[in-house]
Design a protein that fits this description.
Layout (H helix, E strand, L loop, with lengths): L1 H8 L6 E2 L1 H8 L3 H13 L3 E5 L3 E6 L6 H5 L11 E4 L5 H10 L7 E4 L21 E5 L12 H17 L5 E3 L3 E4 L2 E13 L2 E11 L10 H4 L5 H5 L5 H22 L2 H10 L6 E6 L6 E8 L5 E5 L2 E5 L2 E5 L6
Parallel strand pairs: 4-5
Antiparallel strand pairs: 1-3, 2-3, 5-6, 6-10, 7-8, 8-9, 9-10, 11-12, 11-15, 12-13, 13-14
Helix pairs in contact: 2-3, 6-9, 6-10
Bound molecules: biotinyl-5-AMP (BT5).
The site of biotinyl-5-AMP (BT5) has 28 residues, from helix 5, strand 6, strand 9 and strand 10.
Length: 328
């Protein structure tokens, strides 16, 4: 209902819409309209009211409110249900609980601040309030096998890069889950799932993006390796449009996987990759130990292929650092 009222308030002309008009169009009483307007004001919207003119929307808050995001969505599944909070511990944790309780496919959990945002291996993800995008998407992809789950990280990365490029930020992807701009991290992705041997119950890609973040707002230990869209573009970025672009791209990519498999998504991933063709150091997570070599490709399962002195190695999980040429 709040979204419907906002749509009606976004009118050309002097901007005034009478309470009576709104009530009539939405089939509610004028008192109910007034109550919704009060709620919108509490959420941060500046709405003027003038006798005999009605209501006028003067200012929209810089918040990731579901009704704002939905205004820019062209999706049928992703983001049809959005769970928004001012603050939570971790959107991935919330999404996993909601998925276990049967939340709708494509539900998006989004927040302004996480008290316990995390990356892989319980590393932290830090984001100052109202500056980033912190979201997790609930998916039930019954058309893929559990072993294909890592490809959802690659798919989410492609969606993020498409949305960033639409905002003018020429980002690239470092295998497996970092989005970089000029070697600095803009985004981290953590994909988690619940699965049996042959069936994915749910999969939750969690995405943390530095949008309007300044470096001073980040903990000292990450400042050196981090950047934000605002820093890269040289101006503030509209978080709502960016979020909607990302969710629109995600749905397009998921539809393409359903239709043609992962191959086209992987090709696009390769086009955005800053890892392939580079000399890298791999810090393994599979008791493979650390090693160096040249990253040459990803295989059909999303694993990174690295040519080393001992032959080609297949890396399924781990951290990769790109080696500066002078250190070879
Ligand atoms: C990641 O892990 O990069 C995945 C981060 C996923 C965060 C999202 S936010 C929404 C959802 N809810 C969650 O709780 N998580 C997801 P990893 O590759 O392990 O990298 C973690 C490392 O990134 C940390 O150890 C820091 O060094 C660095 N880091 C933390 N915050 C950062 C930031 N804002 N910008 C750049 N680097 C950061």
């Amino acid at each position: 209902m709040r979204g419907d009222i906002l749509s009606l308030l976004r009118v050309p002309g002097d901007g005034y819409v009478s309470g009576e008009d709104i009530a009539e169009k939405l089939g509610i009483t004028r008192t109910a309209v007034w109550k919704h307007i009060q709620e919108l004001r509490q959420a941060g919207y500046k709405i003027e009211s003038r006798s005999r003119h009605g209501y006028r929307l003067c200012e929209t808050p810089d918040l990731l409110l579901p009704e704002e995001i939905r205004e820019h969505l062209h999706t049928k599944v992703i983001g049809q249900h959005i769970v928004y909070s001012d603050e939570t511990r971790s959107t991935n944790e919330d999404a996993k609980k909601l998925a276990a309780a049967g939340a709708a496919d494509g539900t998006v959990v989004i927040t302004e601040f996480q008290g316990d945002g995390h990356g892989r291996l319980s590393r932290g993800w830090f984001s100052p309030k109202y500056k980033g995008v912190l979201c997790s998407i609930i998916l039930y992809p019954d058309y893929v096998l559990p072993q294909e789950a890592p490809k959802f990280t690659l798919l989410a990365a492609v969606a993020v890069v498409r949305a960033m490029r639409a905002s003018g930020v020429e980002a690239g992807i470092k295998w497996p889950n970092d989005i970089l701009f000029e070697g600095k991290k803009l985004t981290g992705i953590l994909t988690e799932m619940e699965a049996a041997m042959e069936h994915i119950h749910y999969i939750v890609p969690g995405i943390g993006v530095n949008v309007n973040t300044t470096l001073e707002e980040l903990p000292e230990e990450v400042r050196e390796k981090a950047t934000s869209m605002r820093i890269a573009a040289g101006h503030p970025i509209d978080r709502v449009t960016f979020t909607a672009d990302m969710l629109n791209a995600l749905e397009e990519l998921l539809l393409s996987v359903k239709k043609d498999g992962f191959a086209p998504v992987m090709e696009e991933w390769k086009a955005y990759s800053v890892t392939l063709g580079q000399d890298v150091r791999v810090i393994g997570m599979n008791r493979q130990g650390d090693f160096t070599g040249r990253a040459v490709d990803i295989d059909e399962s999303g694993a990174l292929l690295v040519d080393t002195e001992d032959g080609r190695k297949r890396v399924l999980a781990g951290d990769v650092s790109i080696r500066p040429h002078e250190q070879k």
